[in-house]
Amino acid sequence: MSAIWFFEDSNLFNILCPHKFREYKKNHDFDGYKKNDYIYFEDDFANKVYLIEKGKVKIGYYAEDGEEVVKAILTRGEIFGEKAILGEDKRTEFAQSIDNSTSICPVAVDTMHCLMRDNQSFSLRIYKFIGMRFKRLERRLQLLLFKDTKTRLLEFLNELQEDYGHCCPDTGDMVIEHPYTQKDIANLIGTSRPTLNIILNELKESNILDFNRKEIRLKIVV
């Protein structure tokens, strides 16, 4: 399975949700999704941007041979469908809930354009976010094409510690409390869950890291 991943260092939900703006709050609702529900499909009309209030969403597409390609797994505070802001008419990917209680804040593209037009700093932050996402996307593709699975995992852990890591004062370890399952991580670095588990155990035996279901503890910062 192929995959690419990306993470953002800011909770865009906190600044983009229409509930923060009085003129949009009155007639605005959240949408709820169960596990495996689709928010949109490839070729759907692109007229909204989506903010994750809670839960997890998988972004991907299907290759010509029918194989699913996972582009990202996003969590609370992140946005998706943002290419609609730039004029995308139809979706080139699907978005699917992978939690049983995912809550999404949909924002019409026209509403987003109004918010961007009326607030310059808001607009600049959106464009910066889109630019960073495209830049990271390009780097992930290069890793998938030219690097082995272990290297992809180490690169993933390097970015994961930037988003979720903190230093343990007692041991000096980098503790990463993250929201992803091993299946999620395997999808995101383009490998199988058994292969991921083998590599994690090899790194554990080498005293590079320790891990459990809720956290990864880096003994040596990668």
Automatic annotation (TrEMBL):
Chain ranges of the Cyclic nucleotide-binding domain = 12-92
Q: Name one GO cellular component term.
A: cytosol
* Recorded GO MF terms: DNA binding; DNA-binding transcription factor activity
Which CDD domains does this one have? CAP_ED (cd00038)
Alphabetized PANTHER family for the sequence:
CRP FAMILY TRANSCRIPTIONAL REGULATORY PROTEIN, HTH-TYPE TRANSCRIPTIONAL REGULATOR ARCR
Q: Which residues form the HTH crp-type domain?
A: 147-222
Protein's UniProt name: Crp/Fnr family transcriptional regulator
Task: Name the species this protein comes from.
Answer: Aquimarina algicola
Listed A to Z, the keywords are: DNA-binding, Transcription, Transcription regulation
SUPFAM superfamilies named among the record's database cross-references: cAMP-binding domain-like, Winged helix' DNA-binding domain
